[in-house]
User: What shape does this take?
Amino acid sequence: MTAHAESWWYSLVSASPLPEAGEAVNIGIVTGNGTPRDLRYMPGLPRLVGLLPQSELMMYEDLLDRVRARITSETSLDTLRVLVGPQVQFSQPKGLLVEPSERIIDILQRKFLQRPQGAVVRELRDQRLKAGDLVDQRISGLLTAGGLRYERRVSLGALSDDLAGLARQHRVPGLSRAVIAQRRIVLLDSVVVEGRKETEAIRLAASKIGKAFWLYRRLRDEIHSIAGVDIRTVGIIGLAAHGRDQEVSEAGEYIKHLWQQDADAVIDDGNPASHSRLAEELQWVSA
Assistant: This one.
């Protein structure tokens, strides 16, 4: 690690979804030494949560991924500015005393990119807890086959030591539950849609869970080649019993539409007929 004071720097990446308002929100950090070397962002772009629909949040994440892929030893910040257009800006570089380690980058991300602590964050946390309970309830009565493991808060790297590098490379979000056999794994996640909180449910479904489903589908063959395991993904949608009004129902349908593009199965918890599909997925694991 070098210790030249003026050589290493960082630049904040900010987005202005509504440029006419004159507001910008941090979404990433570029580090460099003379020229840019790396770009990092926090999945879900926490500081944009609540400001944009989830489809637009994912567009910004995709843009950052494309910019990161274009960074080489000959790239300049001006080149990156041309790539992103007027709604994304790079701040003037600020000097670092040393080459940024992972610890330093983590500190910078928590300082400049960390999600705001407030009502939106608490609602998303509540949604995750309720959604996890929903999966537990549906799975508990179906895990009858021996030799299966049921785990919570599962990441790609935790599934196999051989997959840790792939997980870091693609920054695959974790999913809430997994049913694991020797060579087959079903990964599950869910949302609970309630009246007055349907927006939070959509946000959760589209950002973290939707991206995970997309990446697992995209990386399926590579995961099998590296670790010798086959993976399927399942999404479960729960509509609050007291909240089946039009907005809640439409939110549930929209989440189903989002997930069906990439998940292997999407279960409507309010439809008993769809529960058999969940049983089929668990039978696949134990086969």
Remarks:
- DSSP finds ten helices and ten strands in the chain.
- Strands lie at 8-15, 25-33, 35-40, 88-90, 94-95, 149-154, 175-180, 184-193, 230-239, 265-268.
- The first helix runs from residue 54 to 70.
- The radius of gyration is 21 Å.
